[in-house]
Amino acid sequence: MTTTGVHLRTRVGPAPLIVAVVALVLGGALVVRNLVVTDWDATIFTAFGIDAPATLEYGERLLGEVDARSDLGHDGKFFFVQANDPWYLQPADHAVHLDRPLYRAQRMLYPVLAGGFGLFVPATVVWAMVVVNVLGLAAGTYASALVSRGMGGSSWWGLAFGLNIGLLSEMLVGGAGIVGAASVMFAVAALQRGYGGWALASTVAAVLSREVLLIAAVGCGWWLWRRRERVPAVRFVLIPALSVVAWAVYLRMRLGWNGGVEEVQELGLPFVGFVRAFELWGGRPVNMVTGISVMLLLVLFTRRVLTGNWLVGWATFGFVPLTLLFTRQVWFNYFDITRAVAPLITGFLLMAFAARSRDDAEILEPRL
Questions:
Q1: Which of 56, 166, 180, 284 has the most CB atoms less than 10 A away?
Q2: Average of pLDDT values for 67-72?
């Protein structure tokens, strides 16, 4: 599948690979800093918690002593469970320890990679989770540097990905957001250059990392539709959606048909989550400032997208209405809300600072 590409008018800054190496070094430094504190115990990134005894006992059974947080822990502990059986061949031994099995299992790509496609032993999985995220941070930075060049900006703006506070937070808790966001940026970079097949494959990777990234597939499809590339537009929505459905059917064959949509706790009525979080932000100025800043960002982002036609904007625009649906548990803590909107942050920074014309349409030319 081919599409028309974007003419790369400006080549400012170093090669994108150099920018990616910078992100790799910075990400590696963050990892080392945390490992030094725990005497090189990589389980600090799996985010086990003493208030979640089921997964903590699971981790101790497979790994021995682990680093445990003084609360429920975070997403990494569930991805560790998934990575030990990424194809759900032994759900009674592994998936049974997931709090919301079908919801968690829908996000398959990161645990598949961290689990070595099911070949790694638990001790290796712990380290692989870290390595995949560090490499994902560098890869996403590389793709973002390509996107920035496609917009006529400096490749240094690729660090809008590598220094994204939400993505760095994902690394600290072993989350899947880095792999998903990097896949979105590769899809945008490939579409800019007219490589529709690679872009579509990257979009499928994104939705298999986080099913919510179907909004990126819809955004890319809408951008193509506006350019009257109707067949590629439909493919960009249909094929990723079918991949999500196919994996969901497989999961239900392995885990049962009960659960799924009702397991989603992060979405509710518009604005309700923000208002409830606002009521609890007293005495937590960092959370309050972050929450209000994110709400302001939604307004600025929307204005930037609607007054232009940047592909990266449409690819991440779906996060605007989605964010308004987030529940209090997402809005309440700066750590969680920045993770939730991380792709939108990168998209906004690229549109605000890397763009060198009003929209993509001004620099389009057919790919040779």
A1: 180
A2: 88
